[in-house]
Design goal:
The protein is an alpha/beta fold. It has two domains: 4-125, 3-Layer(aba) Sandwich (Rossmann fold); 133-193, Arc Repressor Mutant, subunit A, CATH 1.10.10.10. It is built from nine helices and five strands, in the order E-H-E-H-E-H-E-H-E-H-H-H-H-H. The protein has helices spanning 13-27, 40-49, 70-76, 92-102, 114-125, 139-149, 154-161, 165-179, 184-193; strands spanning 4-9, 34-37, 53-59, 81-88, 106-109. Strands 2-1-3-4-5 form a five-stranded parallel beta sheet, sandwiched between helices. Strand 3, helix 3 (70-76) and strand 4 form a beta-alpha-beta unit.
Amino acid sequence: MHSMSLLIVDDHPVYRDALHQFLTRKFFASGNQVFSANSIKEGLKIVHSKKSKWIILLDLLIPDSESQFFGITEFKKLEEVVAIAAISGLEKEALEKECLEAGCSIFIPKSSETSYIYQSLCELMGLCPKEPEVTRLTDRQKQILSHISNGDSNKMIAYSLNISEQTVKVHLGEIFKKIKVFNRTQAVIKAKENGLV
C-alpha cells in the first residue's frame, strides 16, 4: 500500500510556502508528506519521481497553464493522482461547477482560512481532522469567548479589547458559526466542554 502525499501547485511563493509549512505541520502526525511546486511542469515531475498516491492542491492561475483547467486535465491523466482540489482567488460561484466538471473533487477559495483548507484535504485523504471545531477559533475570537463566559456585555468587551461594538458582534457571529451554536449560553457551554475557558 503506497502512502498518500499532498502536492501544492501554486506560483505565488509567499502563499505557497506559508501553506506548505502549515500543512506539513498539520499532517506530520498522520505521516502524510507535503510537497510543493511552482508550475504544472514541476508538479508533474514530482508526482512521477515518488512512489505515492497523490492529492493535488492546484492553483488554477498558473503561468504554464495553457487554459484555466489545463492543470486539472494534466494531473487527471496520472493514475497515481487520487483527487484534485482546485484553489483560486477567483469567485467560487463562477468557477466551482466548471472545476468539478473538469475533474476536480472540490473547489477551495483562496480567501478560506487555513483550518478550512486543512479540513477539506483531510476529507479527501480519508483522514478525520484531529482538532475539535472550537480550536479553529482565532486568538481574538478566543478572547471574546473568554469575556462572554465572564458575563461581559458587548459594550464591556469592546472597551476592554479597544474595538468597536460592531466588531464584537461580527466576531460573535463568526464564533457561533464555527462552533455551531446559536447563542452566548451555548457558546460558553461548548467552550467549557473543550477547556477553552
